[in-house]
Amino acid sequence: MSAALATGDGRTQSASIIASVLRAARPGQTVVVPPGDYFGALGVVDQPGVTLTSPGPGAVLHADGQNVEGKALLVVRAPGVRIENIEFRGARVPAGNGAGIRFEAGSLTLDRCRFFDNEMGLLSAGRPDMQLVVRHCDFGDAPRHDSGLLHHLLYVGAIGTCVVMHSRFFDGFRGHLLKSRAAVNRVLWNELVDGPDGEASYELEFPNGGDNLVQGNRIEQSARTQNPAMLSMGAEAGGQHGARLVLRDNRFVNHHPGTAEAPARFVHLWPERLAGPLEVQASGNSFQGPGLIGL
Question: What is this structure's pTM?
Fold first, then answer.
């Protein structure tokens, strides 16, 4: 069952057109949005199995000063939701953590989506029964204002599983490119490259520890970084978790020299903050530029 929006070419449409269809969506329905630019916030997806998709070059959603529930352009709280080929731009809220998508419950798959100039690209809740899959997506252009929280491009709470693959992260500012508190993380064949003008902190962080496979990624730190470590694990575990890290066939490139007080680190592990043992397996990785590996 699908619903196609009758919106002409969509080039200067209000997002309220999409929002009204989403409000009426039934379980399992597919909402097809014509390519073009839409202005304003969308609403809430709370029915299971809903797919929001756009063909061709895809739909571009501009916040235009609006938000849903003081949170995001789109709020998702249902199982089996898919979002395909949609771009989210310019999310701002008074708390400073406006997200392209706020993911609060259920399971969500993103395919070929783009998140630019949002205070948070995607921000999730922390329920252990939640699952997130991100494929072929772009996250970039963190805003350069100082209000609110750190502007992470993708911030995953303490959910059950997070899979990120074939995606691109670039041009952060103070926040991390990818931060995940999920119990299980699979970060596969991505580019986490901050770029010459990026000022991200970590490129990749697992603050709670967890079971983590990081494979086939290019991870590159800018000379302008806000934190000379690139991958960090366990810094905020608080004695609650153990950790496992499998680091395989990744290319690390560091352009930041570090300092005597804060040396550059390709990998920074925090075993003293973990409740259980720390297991690390590493093979086939390359390291270019200055930096320490390990503790």
Answer: 0.94
